[in-house]
Amino acid sequence: AQSVAQPEDQVNVAEGNPLTVKCTYSVSGNPYLFWYVQYPNRGLQFLLKYITGDNLVKGSYGFEAEFNKSQTSFHLKKPSALVSDSALYFCAVRDTSQGGKLIFGQGTELSVKP
Amino acid sequence: KAGVTQTPRYLIKTRGQQVTLSCSPISGHRSVSWYQQTPGQGLQFLFEYFSETQRNKGNFPGRFSGRQFSNSRSEMNVSTLELGDSALYLCASSLAGEGMRTQYFGPGTRLTVL
User: Fold this and answer.
1) How far is it, in rounded angstroms, from Cα B114 to Cα A112?
2) Are the Cβ atoms of A44 and B56 closer than 8 angstroms?
3) What percent of chain B has pLDDT over 90?
4) What pLDDT does B98 receive?
5) Looking at chain B, which residue has its C-alpha nearest residue A48?
6) A42: which chain B residues are within 8 Å (Cβ-Cβ)?
7) Strand, helix or coil at A76?
8) Which one of B13, B33, B92, B99 is CB 3.0 to 4.6 Å from A96, fit for a cystine?
9) pLDDT value at position A2?
10) Weakly modelled stretches of chain A, pLDDT under 50
């Protein structure tokens, strides 16, 4: 069965410092991986995805993610965190064996302090 | 382009009632998926529709049903509501059902069952 795990429930970062939100995956075949962000009382906002190709994927709002096949990881990164980045972040994998539904990790709460 | 819209945004119902939620996908998108988000279970897949056909269904009881219309708009219905059905219901649309397509989410409908 395909799955994703986000090992940290919460990540705290000082504004201006680099941030990393971790995600590991387990899939059979080629993974289609996604990152979404959710602000309070809002839906999920797409940040970036990995389908194939370059292991470093660049997305919205200065975020990027590094795909590592040997470590089965897809960590989200940003060189310099902003207070406005504080939100709930979800990693997801597309389950292509069952019509393409998204399987989400449990989410990581990112808190950026001034 | 307008994003995914969901109506209503908020609903309060009592146990035993039924409810219908509506989702209008991004123009041109033919695939619609529904997810339930709760603090305890996280994001869970409900259904996926493509060209008016249900392609996939999550592990939810038969009280949860859905449909898609010829204009790609979708509705989901929950009958005989239970307290545990209180959740944020999210709709997502994509151009088609292939695995690499990005799903774009609406703001959600917050359902409270009393």
Assistant:
1) 36
2) no
3) 89
4) 66
5) B102
6) 107-108
7) strand
8) B99
9) 85
10) none
Residues of chain B predicted below pLDDT 50: none
Element (H, E) at A82: none
Give the residue among B24, B38, B27, B48 at the shortest CA–CA distance from B106.
Answer: B24
| Rounded Cα distance, A113 and A10, in Å | 13
Task: Specify the pLDDT at position B71.
Answer: 95
| C-alpha to C-alpha distance for A28 and A108, rounded to whole angstroms | 24
pLDDT of residue B41: 93
Which residues have C-beta within 8 Å of that of residue B103, sequence separation ≥ 6? A34, A46, A102, B31, B33, B92, B93, B94
Residue-wise pLDDT for A88-103, tens only, equals 999 999 887 766 789 9
Tokens matching residue B75? 């509705």
Q: Scanning every residue of chain B, which has its alpha carbon at the shortest distance from the alpha carbon of A44?
A: B105
- Three-state SS sequence of chain B: CCCCEEECCEEEECCCCCEEEEEECCCCCCEEEEEEEECCCEEEEEEEEECCEEEEECCCCCCEEEEECCCCCEEEEECCCCHHHCEEEEEEEECCCCCCCCCEECCCEEEEEC
Q: A–B: how many Cβ contacts below 8 A?
A: 61
Q: Using CB atoms within 10 A of its CB, is residue B84 exposed (0-12), middle (13-18) or buried (19+)? A: exposed
Distance CA A53, CA A33 (A): 13
pLDDT value of residue B12: 98
